[in-house]
Every structure is written in C-alpha cells, then in structure tokens.
Amino acid sequence: MKTSKLHPIAFAGIISISSSATAATSIRVSIQTTGPVGLAPGIAGFSNGSFDIFDPGSAASAALENLAETGSPAGFMPSSGGAILGPGVGPGSPPIFAPGASGSAVFEVADGDNMFHFASMLLPSNDWFIGNGDGFDVSSLLGASNGSSLFFDFTTVWDAGTELEDFDFSPGNPLIGIMNPGGGAADFGTDQGGVVTALSGSDPFGAFANADLGFDSTQFDFTGEPIARVTLEVIPEPSTSLLAGLSILLGLSRRRRH
Fold first, then answer.
1. How far apart are CA 60 and CA 39, in angstroms?
2. What average pLDDT is seen over the chain?
3. Torsion angle defined by CA atoms of residues 63, 65, 66 and 67, in that order, rounded to the nearest 10 degrees
4. Which of 15, 47, 156, 172 has the least C-beta neighbours within 10 A?
5. Cα separation of 131 and 49, whole Å?
6. Where is the Ice-binding protein C-terminal domain (predicted)?
C-alpha cells in the first residue's frame, strides 16, 4: 500500500477505547476544515500498525463504503487507543464539520500504539472521503514533553468507487449552494463497482448528475489545497494535572497556617 500524502485529523466528542495496561501519553487531536467543503463524523485513533482503513486501487470494504456513503464510521475501530468522533458523542460536538469548523478530542495513547489513523466522508459527495490508508507514524510524540506537537494537512480526496456521483443522493449539498438535501443511506444511489482512487484537478463537482442550474461548480478544485488540517499535541495526563493542583492547594494551606 502506498503512503498517502494525506495525513490525519480529528473532531469534538468521543467514545474512548484506550489501553491502560502500559504507559500512555495524553495527546489532543484537533481538526480544522480549511477548504470550501465539509466533513461528516469520522473515525480517528491509534494502533500498533495492525489496523487498516483502505488500499488505493482495491475495492472498498463494507465499512469504508458505509463511511464514504453515509458518514457513519461505526464499522471501524483501531485495534487499540481508538475513538469514534461524531455528533452526539460528546458535549458540543457538531452534526457535521462545515467549512472553517474545528474540534478536538483527547486520547490516552499506549506506548506501542504509534500509528495514527483517520477517515471521514467529504460533504457533499456520494462516496468521497479523506483519510490515510497506512497509519501515520507519531512515535516522536509518545513519552515526549508537554507541548510537543505535529501537524499535517489532508490534501488528497479519495473516491471509494462504490456509488456514482449524483446530487440527488449526495448528503451535504447545501454546504456548497445546492438546495436539494440529497440522500444519506448506503446503496441509496447507483452502484459504481469501482476501486478506491485519488481525485484530482479542477471542477470536481462538474460531472455530478442533477446539479442545480444556478450552481457554479468551477469554484472548486482538488489541486493540492488542503481540505483539512490535523494537529496532535502532547498534554499533561489527568493524573499529573491533578497532582499538580493538589500540590498548589497544599502549598497555599501551609502558607495560611504559618
């Protein structure tokens, strides 16, 4: 599998599934959409390298098809240190990530889980997504000092090859000015029977069927501009923060007694 140019990203609201058997590093994963399109809820997490989301040039798995066509990441879970990121999972998490939206989640990452994974449906589309097929190595953050960080841009948009492009079955149309609300269920549109391929070039929405006549598709392009940016930052572990707070309180208490 080729390593994608894309590199990770993440959202507000999580259900954590992390390993506590070994030492862990607290990492805040933040995402901001930087392009003119949006994102659905996604899957983000860390693994020991045994987890995989997709292979370019191969048919999409059932889990990837569900994610790319409906925005649901429920079929995926990294082998360890993973979380599902999406609406209603945590306080204040948005139903979608519109252009310019951002969010974050904190992961307790075990020492062996140095590979980061992410995938999310691109809105609007029938089966387009961003993500990294191979895990991205973040070993430099594990056990690193607080404030250590990495950031990466997602620049490639992938076509899962599972459904033909048609705005009648494309969730998120209003994000780019198409007032038809579109579909949202897996296999709701016409099956494509293709493989996962990278999209490129200008006017990516120009070939969609049932476009609103007033929609100017030429304002969009996938020629290398970032779709979203992900930042991973090491933060104090909750236990460390608690001990620091207790130390401060004890110090204040001693001063008052004296």
1. 19
2. 79
3. 90
4. 15
5. 15
6. 235-257
Look-up of token digits 């066509």? 69
Query: pLDDT tens-digit profile of 185-201?
Result: 777 888 999 999 999 88
Contact in structure between 28 and 110 (CB atoms under 8 Å): no
Q: What angle do CA 10, 16, 19 make, to 5 degrees?
A: 115
* Token output for 114: 């140095």
Q: CB-based contacts of 25: which residues, under 8 Å, 6+ apart?
A: 108, 109, 111, 141, 142, 143, 144, 234, 237
Instruction: State the pLDDT at residue 158.
Output: 97
What's this model's pTM, rounded to 2 decimal places?
A: 0.80
Parse the chain into domains and list their residue ranges: 14-257
The superfamily (CATH) of domain 14-257 is: F-spondin domain (2.60.40.2130)
